[in-house]
Amino acid sequence: DLYPLICYLPRYATDASIKPDPEDSLPLWDNVTHSRAPVVPPFGVDSLKNESETPNGPQRRGTIFQPEQALPRVSTDVPLLPARIPPRTTFYDYLPIFLFFKPILTIFRGTRYTEDRRDGAGRKKAARPVESNVPLEISLFLSSYTAWLLKEDLVKPAIATALINTLTVLQDTVANLDRVRTTPIPFAYQAHLRTTMWIYLFLLPFQIYASFKYLTIPATAFASFLLMGFLEIGQEIENPFNYDLNDLDLDAFCLTIERELAEITAHSASDPSSFLFNSFNQPFAPTDRRNVEEILADSKHAYHLPDSGMMHVQRTLLGCWREIDEVTRHKAR
């Protein structure tokens, strides 16, 4: 969903009107198979034929949500994946207690679950290398644009300083989020905790058999469910940026920012005189409920006295404080 917003930048530009030539391919698209005909995504970046189709199968009617419709429509000679590719919903998502048998089924079926993010020992698999860090590259172009504004004297130095500081905070935030995503729980801690847990659960039936008798099996299963849940919780909080139910909904955050930016840019910065001096502004309410026009028109009021005008304004503000303090405090009957 980001491509239509950055497709005009030099690193990501792909001209669909020109016949693709491998000799002219940018480094980012070097290993990508170019289409002979331009691919025009229906809503920004989704190049799938059916609106309800995803790489993991079709979506059910009524569950389709495509915020890409609000993005510019661009054409590219490079086939693009959808903006959101959640993992396929499986049987284990509905009954996670059967995850214990998943490695055994894998051995008998002779297949590997490519969507698993951990190996058999519970260690986090290394992420696939990424050709480029898109957020940092966007911040590079933003810094270049800020430098150009300064060079052309289009912004004041103080405003440019605020822009540069904001870009620095943005880069630090991206680096911190990436550090959270790529920093695993130490394997020695995981291995020690798992080994201790399995040894305890293996010996638990022999410890409680004399007291529980035939209830030993369900009691052991219940204890295993509780204790193994703590291990799963530790793995869940290791990376909060996936599509699990407990992960952060970054898509919702980004869509909220998109809506707020659109709302901000839709309202121009008006002259303060156009909204300060009108009939709706009552600056001294609740003590003085006259609007600005009435206050300015009453030239004989104490506010307009050359020597004591500010004293009367301060007296009115103190009255506002007393009245607000009395009204907003809840008094027990």
TrEMBL record:
- InterPro entries xref list: YneE/VCCN1/2-like
Q: Which UniProt keywords apply?
A: Cell membrane, Ion transport, Membrane, Transmembrane, Transmembrane helix, Transport
Which organism does this sequence originate in? Answer: Sistotremastrum niveocremeum HHB9708
Places the protein is found: Cell membrane
Q: What is this protein called?
A: UPF0187-domain-containing protein
For this UniProt entry, what's an example GO CC term? plasma membrane
Q: Which domain of life is it from?
A: Eukaryota
Annotated region Disordered: where? 43-63
In the bilayer, the protein is annotated as:
Multi-pass membrane protein
The principal localisation class reads membrane
Quote one Gene Ontology molecular function term. Answer: chloride channel activity
